[in-house]
Amino acid sequence: MALWIGSTSGKEEEKQCVKSGGKLSCIPDDINWSVLRRISLMSNQIEEISCCPKCPNLSTFFLGFNRLKVIRGEFFQFMPSLVVLDLSDNRDLSELPEEICRLTSLQYLNLSRTEISSLSVGLKGLRKLISLDLEFTKLKSIDGIGTSLPNLQVLKLYQSKVFIDARSIEELLLLEHLKILTGNVTDWRLASIQRVVRLASCVQRLEIFQLSAEVLTLNTVALSGLRQLVIEGSEISEIKIDWKSKEKEDLLSNSSPYFKHLSILL
């Protein structure tokens, strides 16, 4: 729908291909890869990709909501201009080929709701990547992400198997351009995050597991960008709001006694 709305002329329509929701079981043979800029094959039944298309102009490719299990490396060989790749909601997709490193122009990668459990070695080549969505995956570690993807601005780890601990905090602090972070944390690491204001201020979506204390303390200055908070496996009796900042300048200019962006609390 978004691609169709974006069409302004017949010439523009020739540069995009939308075949969503058509119950396709494979990539159609009639796609003119050489001229297309945008392709959407979302909401089909495609299980495997083994072709090797040459698409020098392709910038956006939507493959979400399919049944992908395998993507062969040669598929990514000739996509030098690809900026957006959406592979979300492919529930059986467990790994990416190393050849994904050939997508040197890629900036946005959505792997949410897949079976991805580790970061592909090939991701290290995606130096221009600024947004990586790994929510609702089986990812267990983000080791090396700080040096492999130094330009990341958006990192989504909510409902993955990654818990923000001392090691992952070190990795996240290497991401100097980080602006949006979602993730999971246990109560004994929550205080550590809130002490690092630069990191905490990026948090928009947070799930806290297994609170051992009866009182949960949240700092509105540190977690100023929080939009959604989920608390599970806990028996807390009180949520305490701390709106004071240790730095007087922050307190005077930026602090607020409430979470102005928080809209969901579960």
From TrEMBL:
Keywords: Leucine-rich repeat, Repeat, Signal. SUPFAM superfamilies: L domain-like. The lineage of its organism: Eukaryota, Viridiplantae, Streptophyta, Embryophyta, Tracheophyta. InterPro entries: Dev_Immune_Receptor (IPR050328), Leu-rich_rpt_typical-subtyp (IPR003591), LRR_dom_sf (IPR032675), LRR_R13L4/SHOC2-like (IPR055414). Residues 84-237 form the Disease resistance R13L4/SHOC-2-like LRR domain. This is (rape) hypothetical protein. It comes from Brassica napus. The keyword Signal applies.
